[in-house]
Design a protein that fits this description.
The complex is a heterodimer of chains A (about 240) and B (about 300).
Chain A (H helix, E strand, L loop, with lengths): L1 E12 L2 E12 L3 E6 L5 H8 L9 E9 L2 E2 L5 H6 L3 E4 L11 H7 L10 H11 L1 H5 L10 H14 L4 E5 L7 H16 L3 E5 L3 H7 L2 E6 L2 E7 H6 L1 H7 L3
Parallel strand pairs in A: 3-8, 3-9, 6-7, 7-8
Antiparallel strand pairs in A: 1-2, 1-4, 4-5, 9-10
Helix pairs in contact in A: 3-6, 4-6
Chain B lengths: L1 H32 L6 H19 L12 H33 L4 H23 L4 E2 L8 E4 L2 E4 H23 L1 H11 L11 H26 L2 E2 L3 H16 L4 H21 L5 H15 L14
Antiparallel strand pairs in B: 1-4, 2-3
Helix pairs in contact in B: 1-5, 1-6, 1-7, 1-8, 1-9, 2-3, 2-4, 2-7, 2-8, 3-4, 3-7, 5-6, 5-7, 6-7, 8-9, 8-10, 9-10
Classes of the chains: A alpha/beta (about 240), B mainly alpha (about 300).
Chain lengths: ~240, ~300
């Protein structure tokens, strides 16, 4: 079933067009990745889906974003999380460093009404990332970069999301930690989480995802299954190092 | 000698309480929005006037409510009503002046200038509506003076100091223990990520203005009870001083607002105790300037760092 459909989406920062009519879709239960160079419009795409207000996100000038068949263009950013259960783990993590690990997680449950599921979600987060359980009472700015990334993902899970978007979750992580992170995401996906992921490291992303889109300067230039994209000569040359 | 010192300390604590209650409003709004709400001193003034009208209404001064209630009951009604109405004024300012700018992504500088304008509008609006004559705040509770040795304290002073202490404890609990308080702290650290947690930013901002302005209303009543002559410019000097107190304590930090407020109160009273009273503000601000030179982020402030 189609969960997210982006239909000829055009957005602009002021008078500068950032996306030139992109179309993509994500099915329920899939892992889809957006790959491409810096400035291709990957982050802009995710911010637009999250309906973040300017200046963080651009103005939508044409096209539509549909979630479960309904347009979400007029939805407030907090309602994207609250009512539609779409979470974004932003680039650079953006954890609340002045709060403890526990408080960061708790804050994400702020808007939830299903109180009975919360304990189970804490268990799920601490089961995926045992390090967070050890550091619950610590101020989160004292965590290492990898732990902060775990917290950012954990926080998104605590919001009760069923659709998870991640913007470069591996940035700044040592290779071992990076594989840990992807293993955790895979585990979530097997339990039913739909994932849309931005990754600089196209090779890792395509091994992990079911399908992918290659973006370049605000447009989608290739789409296909991971296997197809991995075999594509253009991608091979430009992003996988020949 | 000791008696004089103690007497001065008590007076200092009374003024410290005023400064703290007002400094809180600056610090809360700054903590959440990084906006110096320069209209805040004038909101205190508005609070005093609201208290005046509420109190005289229940004292039967207007045809609308022709019964005169007893003073203590009037006070009991004036306090919550003034706090609610002043909070409404603060929220209205946010809604009509600051929010549209925020929506358009205006630079902080323009918002600060807007705040200054709002303050001027409140002062001059008051002048236009009520005229230049001063208002005399009614005496609602009989003054009781307690004397021990050479030290005397009025019931009002005790009430002022006690209120400040209770407000400090209450706010500290709100900010550290409640969800809304947690959201306020979160916004102060990273505004971008707050809506991603499903939290409407505007709700948190309105809550912050409610807290800050209702405390300004409370300060307005207590000030009017202590110094019962009201005029449209009464919020200016005390507002600026409270702002400086907030900066000295470390703006954005609740403990800082109280520490700064009480330090300013003590410095002022001690200067007057030993020098001619005309030296008061000069010395007080010089000392605060020295504190800021030594600790530019204020006593409780920490320079902001972000990990990349």
């Amino acid at each position: 079933m189609k969960l997210l459909e982006i239909d000829h989406l055009e957005v602009a920062y002021g008078s500068i067009r950032a996306l030139h009519g992109i179309s993509l879709e994500v099915d329920e239960g899939e892992i889809v990745t957006l790959i491409g160079a810096n400035g291709a419009g990957k982050t802009t795409t995710l911010h637009t889906i999250s309906r973040l207000p300017p200046p963080e996100a651009p103005r939508l000038t044409a096209g539509d974003i549909r979630y479960r068949g309904q347009s979400i263009v007029g939805v407030e950013p907090h309602d994207i999380v609250r009512r539609l259960h779409i979470a974004l783990v932003p680039e650079g993590r953006h954890i609340f460093g002045n709060l403890t690990v526990q408080e960061n997680l708790k804050l994400a449950t702020y808007a939830r009404r299903d109180d009975d599921r919360r304990p189970a979600d804490y268990d799920r987060v601490f089961d995926l990332f045992p390090r967070l359980a050890e550091r619950r009472r610590q101020r989160s700015e004292s965590l290492s970069g990898g732990e902060q990334q775990m917290l950012a993902v954990g926080r998104a899970l605590m919001s009760g999301c069923t659709f998870l978007m991640l913007d470069e979750p591996s940035m700044g992580l040592a290779p071992l930690l990076m594989y840990d992170m992807f293993r955790a995401l895979k585990k979530l996906n097997r339990a039913g989480m739909t994932i849309l992921l931005i990754e600089q490291n196209a090779h890792v992303a395509l091994q992990f995802a079911h399908r992918g889109y290659l973006m370049d300067t605000g447009a989608i230039v290739r789409a296909g299954t991971s296997a197809e994209l991995l075999a594509d000569p253009l991608i091979h040359q430009a992003y996988l190092g020949g | 000698m000791f008696d004089t010192l103690l007497q001065n300390l008590i007076n200092a604590m009374q003024w410290g309480s005023f400064y703290s209650l007002i400094a809180l409003g600056y610090t809360l709004v700054y903590g959440v929005l990084l906006l110096i709400n320069f209209a805040h001193g004038d909101i205190v003034m508005v609070g005093s006037y609201i208290a005046f009208f509420v109190a005289t209404l229940f004292l039967g001064h207007y045809d609308l409510f022709p019964v005169a209630l007893p003073g203590p009951l009037v006070l009991a009604l004036t306090v919550p009503l003034t706090m609610i109405l002043t909070a409404l004024v603060g929220v209205t300012l946010e809604r009509i002046a600051y929010r549209p700018l925020r929506r358009k992504g205006a630079h902080r500088l323009y918002v600060v200038i807007t705040a200054l304008m709002c303050g001027l509008i409140l002062e001059n609006g008051n002048l236009a509506l009520l005229g230049a004559s001063r208002k005399k705040f009614p005496e609602l509770v009989d003054k009781v003076i307690y004397t021990a040795g050479g030290v005397s304290v009025t019931n009002l002073k005790i009430a002022v100091i006690l209120t400040a202490v209770l407000v400090f404890v209450g706010l500290h609990l709100i900010v550290t223990k409640t969800r809304m308080g947690m959201a306020m702290r979160a916004i102060s650290y990273d505004k971008f990520a707050v809506p991603l947690m499903g939290i409407p930013i505007d709700t948190v901002i309105v809550f912050t203005f409610v807290l800050g302005s209702s405390m300004a209303g409370l300060a307005g009543i207590l000030f009017a009870l202590s110094y019962p002559i009201l005029d449209p410019y009464m919020g200016l000097s005390i507002g600026w001083k409270a702002f400086i107190a907030a900066v000295v304590g470390g703006i954005g930090d609740i403990r800082g607002a109280f520490a700064g407020g009480f330090i300013l109160g003590f410095v002022e009273i001690m200067v007057v105790a030993f020098f001619p009273s005309t030296y008061r503000d000069l010395f007080a601000f010089t000392i605060l300037l020295i504190i800021l030179t030594l600790r530019p982020t204020g006593l409780f402030g920490v320079p902001k760092t972000t990990k990349v």
